[in-house]
Design a protein that fits this description.
The structure is a single chain. With about 140 residues, this protein is an alpha+beta fold. Helices cover about 25% and strands about 45% of the residues. The chain is built from two helices and five strands. The radius of gyration is 16 Å and the shape is elongated.
Length: about 140
């Protein structure tokens, strides 16, 4: 298993602690169950290379979705889903040996005004720093 796959599998497993009903990597459609978390691979960049090793910054975003009757109760659910998502991802530092660091990036909340039911969403960015043997990302 590649280092990238190890990291994505760990993220997917860790998000199970959030209580989300749907957790999917790189989905091709909108959520079918709510609360939902979608893991998006936003690529990676080489940070530095040295003899025999390469350090990468891998960008991911996690999209969270809640559905309900609207109002502050639904916004509270979204905020709680976001908080448990961040805690689950940052909790992988020191647990997954390949991960050197995880930085929390931008948060973008959103409303789905044309959905058949009231829906709120967020997208949370993370940068994961990891190192591999040269040529084995």
């Amino acid at each position: 298993m590649s280092v990238r796959e190890t990291i994505f599998a760990a993220i997917e497993a860790a998000l199970g602690a959030t209580g989300a009903q749907e957790i999917e990597r790189m989905p091709s459609s909108d959520p079918l169950k709510f609360d939902a978390l979608h893991i998006m691979d936003d690529g990676q960049a080489q940070i530095e290379g040295e003899a025999g090793a390469t350090r990468y910054g891998m960008a991911i975003s996690i999209e969270g979705y809640v559905e309900g009757s609207g109002g502050s109760a639904m916004h509270t659910r979204l905020n709680n889903l976001h908080a448990s998502t961040v805690a689950a991802v940052l909790g992988l530092i020191g647990v997954v040996p390949a991960i050197e660091d995880i930085e929390e990036g931008d948060l973008r909340p959103a409303v789905a005004p044309l959905a058949s039911k009231a829906r709120l969403a967020f997208s949370q960015d993370f940068t994961i720093t990891f190192a591999t043997r040269r040529g084995q990302p």
